[in-house]
Write a structure and sequence with these properties.
The protein is α/β, with parallel strands linked by helices. The chain is built from 13 helices and six strands. Helix 2 packs antiparallel against helix 13 and helix 5 runs parallel beside helix 6.
Length: 293
């Protein structure tokens, strides 16, 4: 039997997939997600991006790659201006028989897409709606004012969803839409704005996820400071005394090792900014105590 689905829950409903995979759990604790081809259940694997699977009733399963990211040589051979390339790709994504929306934030990625959409002379963009999440009372985290201004300049319809700690849409609500745990709180706003899109009758939306990573659109790419993670200096004699105990000395060694790990790994530093990741030595210690199941 060969079974495939777009999410794990469909396979689990068929009785496929065993216990939680220990290696997947370990990776989640270090990375905040379970990378392909692993899944969080034994007996289930994800298909790598750009690949397809061929299966025969005899049981033969083969995987082949149909697309790979372009290389530096490819870019040298094809010097298409980036703006033209973006416009061409965005226009391809506008092909839809239902109304289209756009998730718009203050980031580079969604702003570039919004600009490309606005420059496209097509009837498909006449009723396009831009949606954004706002955070009342949290000015530093609220990108809605920038998104609103972007929509105004580009002449796009704009809908804003205020999201606060008191809102009935919680992290638990958001994680119900996921197959696997994801240690990134942005999943709350993503799920909330997706629900808003559904309420507005939008079945198709454009999203800039991943673009900020490509273009370095976040401040943390320029900030390599380890200061926020440095262990605090003991305050007063009582704290100094605690640092001299076996437990205190162990905590200091652990904190020092953590700083060295983050200093040697830009990815680890980035991960620690997003969620409280565990180091490999921590995960190894936990795994030693895990039940075999």
């Amino acid at each position: 039997v060969f079974s495939c689905a777009s999410d794990v829950r469909a396979l689990r409903a068929l009785g496929i997939g065993g216990a939680i995979a220990r290696d997947a759990l370990a990776l989640y604790l270090m990375l905040g997600y379970v990378p392909t081809p692993r899944s969080n259940h034994t007996g289930i694997e994800k298909l790598d991006p750009g690949c397809y699977v061929t299966w025969s009733p005899e049981g033969a399963v083969t995987t082949a790659r149909y697309w790979s990211p372009p290389t530096d040589t490819d870019f040298e051979d094809r010097r298409e201006p980036l703006a033209d390339l973006i416009d061409r790709v965005v226009e391809e994504q506008l092909l839809s028989d239902v109304p289209i929306g756009l998730f718009l934030s203050g980031g580079i990625d969604s702003s570039v897409i919004a600009s490309s959409v606005a420059s496209t002379k097509s009837t498909r963009t006449e009723n396009l709606t831009a949606l954004s999440v706002s955070y009342p009372g949290l000015a530093e985290a609220d990108e809605a004012p920038v998104a609103r201004r972007t929509a105004e300049v580009l002449g796009l319809s704009f809908v804003e969803l205020p999201l606060s700690a008191e809102a009935d849409f919680t992290y638990a609500d958001a994680t119900r839409a996921l197959d696997e745990p994801l240690a990134f709180t942005a999943v709350v706003s993503q799920a909330a704005i997706s629900r808003l899109a559904g309420e507005k009758g939008l079945k198709c939306v454009l999203s800039g996820d991943g673009g900020d990573e490509v273009f370095g659109g976040y401040r943390w790419y320029a900030d390599r400071s380890l200061a926020p993670f440095a262990p605090p200096a003991p305050a007063g004699l009582a704290e100094w005394g605690k640092s001299l105990t076996p437990r205190g000395a162990k905590a200091l060694r652990d904190a020092t090792l953590g700083q060295a790990f983050r200093a040697s790994s830009p990815f680890a530093l980035h991960a620690f900014r997003l969620f409280p990741a565990l180091r490999p030595d921590h995960v190894a210690a936990l795994a030693a105590d895990m039940d075999a199941e």
